[in-house]
Amino acid sequence: KTTTQSGRFRVGKLHAQGGLGAVYEAVDLELDRKVALKELQPRRAHDEVSQLRFLQEAEITGRLEHPGVVPVYGLGRHPDGRPYYAMRLVEGETFHEAVARFHRGSRGEPRENRELAFRRLLRSVVEVCYALGYAHSRGVVHRDVKPENIMLGRFGETLLLDWGIAKTLDPRVP
Asked: Which of 72, 96, 139, 163 is paired with 62 by a 20 to 30 Å CA distance?
């Protein structure tokens, strides 16, 4: 995708893609910072049910203010009506990639280095449990916890991503 403008965001290259949405790197022109901009995939962009699910994901994620959940910066619509939301751009690797790297690098590496790498992975699992515990305390169940939805940032942070099929336990909240 070429760089385009959408209100306060200048949208750049594709960062990641899932079943419902696509995430692009973007620049927040008001605050001059890199962000991730998530929007519906083009084939689902004008489907009402997909839009409702997408908006629910943005709202649930935005309500979960926890260090283990990516903060949402804003919600908007493109000129053609397609919804999008902006969030922190997390750079790093998925838990899946980190585990694979750990197993690939095991041969011939000093024991101390392997122990440190293993402890980092274990710490990430505990941090995901804290994020899930917080979400549960707020009446939200993730329902798609898997290594590919856990992001290990370059500065030691662990984030649980993709709240797209999350459910709220409060009957008043969709």
From this structure: 96
Q: What is the pLDDT of residues 67-98, one digit of tens each?
A: 999 999 999 988 888 899 999 999 999 999 99
Whole-number Å distance between alpha carbons of 110 and 107 = 9
For the whole model, what pTM was predicted? Answer: 0.88
Query: How confident is the model over 133-169, as pLDDT tens digits?
Result: 999 999 999 999 999 999 999 999 999 999 999 999 9
Structural tokens at position 144 = 């798609």
H or E stretch covering 149: none
Catalytic annotation, residues = 144
135-138 contacts: CB < 8 A, separation 24 or more? Answer: 135/64, 135/66, 135/69, 135/166, 138/63, 138/64
Buried-exposed string 51-77: b where 16+ CB fall within 10 A, e elsewhere? bebbbbbbbbbbbbebebbbebbbebe
Which tokens sit at 16? Answer: 């990641």
